[in-house]
Amino acid sequence: MTDNYLGRRLANRYELVESIGQGSMGxxxxxxxxxxxxxxxxxxxxAQTLLNEQMTQRFMHEAMTCxxxxxxxxxxVRVTDYGVTDDEIPFYVMEYLKGKNLGQVxxxxxxxVKRFLDFTRQICLGLEMAHKxxxxxxxxxxxxxxxxxxxxxxxxxxxxxGELVKNLDIGIATLIQAGISEQTSxxxxxxAYASPEQMEGQELDNRSDIYSLxxxxxxxxxxxxxxxxxxxxxxxxxxxHRSQEPKPLDGLSPYGPLPQRIKxxxxxxxxxxxxxxxxxxxxxxxxxxxxxxxxxxxxxxDEGSEDPSEESAEDRFYxxxxxxxDKPVAEIVFPKLLKLDERQLPTLWVMLSSQEIEQRxxxxxxxxxxxxxxxxxxxxxxxxxxxxxQGPRLLPSYLDLINPNHEIIxxxxxxxxxxxxxxxxxxxxxQYVNSRRLHIALPQRKLLKEWxxxxxxxxxxxxxxxxxxxxxxxxxxxxxS
Length: 481
Fold this sequence. Notes:
The chain is α+β, with helices and mostly antiparallel strands. The chain folds into two domains: about 10-295, Transferase(Phosphotransferase) domain 1 (Transferase(Phosphotransferase), domain 1), CATH 1.10.510.10; about 330-480, no CATH class. It is about 35% helix and about 25% strand.
């Protein structure tokens, strides 16, 4: 069947190249942005069954406002443009990311617990940002997704975080629903994942999304849905969501018994009455993350059955790190040398709020080193993450070159082309949250090695705090300039 959209140019800018998907809200294409030299973008057309004049007008006025979410969270696909075709079909333009949707990822095999927790954490962070709301006409308006399902979750690869999970269509669904609710009886959503109150046409809150997330979490762990209607119709799914109890999770994971805490979390999301579900995504996330420390793996549980190429031994090693007992639970930064096999790995450990980590981990990262040998041998190692809205966050750490451990860290930095920044959250202080791999330029590494060698032949004659103050002043002047 001929696709009339292929080859068309939208807004005298976007040239449609290939159809890549179909969802409940419309069809998705890859397009070339000719204004930017052919950069690929993704374009979604809204299904004609959802169209009416009021919805189109509302979409045109407010669709771009939803792009706030993509700017606020790395776990939401960014909306960059919108428009209407010559035949009055609304479309919106998104960043194009190579990868698979979650349905494709779990089609052949469900997720191991470790991968499940990683994916779910990222999905929750994106949803949490949506539920907190966006600014419309000076007011904070919470956003309910309304169509959480595996086809709306994209899994792609990121050089900084490995598997990066992003939510699609957050905000857009709310705008569409507002446009169709007064004039039609259309149902917006995916039947297998819709909450009971959504099936009944009730006013929704964030707990409807939590129910849909619960269905998807169940499927991520088992490869099956928790409910099975007699007939695959709206009426069949209505009865299933309203009265059928979900099948227990016991024995359904191919990796062995599931931790009880995870089973409890999934089943609580699937409660028929919204008052019995977690009250917020953050509450659900905190409970799930507790399973990493409070619930040891069950006998026979195999997390190593995934493709080993998906995560390196070094990545797994970093994920196993725990916040040191001798360090306070506070926003601090300190260097630490880790040993893996025969290697010594220089790392920077950082504790921030969960919100700050979310903002910074995907930001542009860079570093700088300053050194003084008089009056005391001291080096200032500054790592910075620059957020395009929040600006830079500086993470300074001092290395006292009289301290043998600090000298070794500096020497390893001079020998490596990179180092890791390990992030820990104040809200969950014992648990590794994420990491960034930052490059050290060759001229920097040569300079670090030179400083180490010179420090070994220099005698410190003054107070270390004096040298710290000197370095701090020099860096502030350098940074402001």
